[in-house]
């Protein structure tokens, strides 16, 4: 795995479950790459995503953002086009972007927002946007007539979380250049949202495991019982 990874492992007790603050501090020490590594949170949930009533999905604005410049594509028409542009959208349009994605395999964007009246158009991209997690969805606030608010929140650090077929959620909470306290606050904001999103149909232990890591570093286990402390 490399010398840096091996050195990082020495900083971690693999049998220990750390508090959020301890885990963040250790992850920052293990982020030894020369670039600004992303700090990511991985959650294993006690849900069965094969059942519709056990889906966990939503979005939350991290108080200190993600440290990433997010490119937003908006599908809109009429006055909403000007509203989206004024709010800072990187790309705004309709059919032309459907064709660009389909014919040129263009994906120079990170988030897609659409007004409800454009979902018939956007729906034609379901097969390509869906697998990439880019399909607009009302639950994440990306299908809305209030495009200005949606864009502003995304640019401010709004992240979407969604349980995958293995019952795991992967979400970035910042960069290694962030101060420890800011990462901890982002961590708590995300965990609070995920805990509140617990499906009523989910039985038993909801938070099975909570792990923090940097892009190139090993995982650090967080005590599931202390995530909201």
TrEMBL record:
InterPro entries the UniProt entry points to: Ribosom_uL1_bac-type, Ribosomal_uL1, Ribosomal_uL1-like, Ribosomal_uL1/biogenesis, Ribosomal_uL1_3-a/b-sand, Ribosomal_uL1_CS
HAMAP family the record matches: Ribosomal_uL1_B (MF_01318_B)
GO cellular component, one term: ribosome
Keywords: Repressor, Ribonucleoprotein, Ribosomal protein, RNA-binding, rRNA-binding, Translation regulation, tRNA-binding
Species of provenance: Clostridium algifaecis
Similarity remark: Belongs to the universal ribosomal protein uL1 family.
Self-association state and partner proteins as the record states: Part of the 50S ribosomal subunit.
Record bears the keyword Iron: no
Superkingdom: Bacteria
CDD domains: Ribosomal_L1
PANTHER family tied to this protein: 54S RIBOSOMAL PROTEIN L1, MITOCHONDRIAL (PTHR36427), LARGE RIBOSOMAL SUBUNIT PROTEIN UL1M (PTHR36427:SF3)
This protein's name: Large ribosomal subunit protein uL1
Protein role: Protein L1 is also a translational repressor protein, it controls the translation of the L11 operon by binding to its mRNA.
